Amino acid sequence: MKLFLVLAPIAFLGAPLSAAAPPSEVTVTLSPLAGSQQRGTALLTQSGNTLAVTLKMPTPTGQKMSENGQPMMMKSSPLPAHIHRGRCPNPQPKPLYPLKPITSGSSTTTLTSTDLSKLTAGDYAIVVHSPANPQKMIACGDIKQANPTGTTTQ
Asked: Which of 20, 47, 67, 74 would be 62's cystine partner, CB 3.0–4.6 Å?
């Protein structure tokens, strides 16, 4: 009996902890919506009480147009972006957190009103909107701890 009392606390100390540490960085793949062919990534990085959201969308960006039957790319306007509640391809229409518009292929926004563990634990998505029609979503990605292939929405 004495042996059990001595070994029980030692066995407890060696047991793995089941609670995982909250993520400090998550990459979200932004997949095209509505035939936009716009792809990109969002890097969310938690540092203390701030959350940095860095969006990257390779150029050329903008809406596809046709000139003399040949496709061309329009010079890009800033692309509005937000964090919405819900999942792609149908997140809630009302933005939850505004992000700086994507200009020249990137933007970085620092948020102090939320943290990464809240976003990865719930149903949230990053949405990029058309510059010509802010109601039209052109790219979307679900925020979760693992998003290796993005959200297929075509």
From this structure: 74
CA 75 to chain CA mean position, Å: 25
Domain 23-142 part of CATH 3.40.50.300: no
- In this structure, of 11-15, 103-107, 125-129, the range with the lowest mean pLDDT score is 11-15
CB atoms inside a 10 Å sphere around CB 98: 12
CA distances from 32 to 3, 17, 67, 131 (A): 63, 39, 23, 15
For residue range 31-64, list pLDDT tens digits in order. Answer: 999 888 889 999 999 999 999 999 999 864 444 5
pTM above 0.70, yes or no: yes
Residue 65 — very low, low, confident or very high, per pLDDT cuts 50/70/90? very low
| Better-scored residue on pLDDT, 18 or 77 | 77
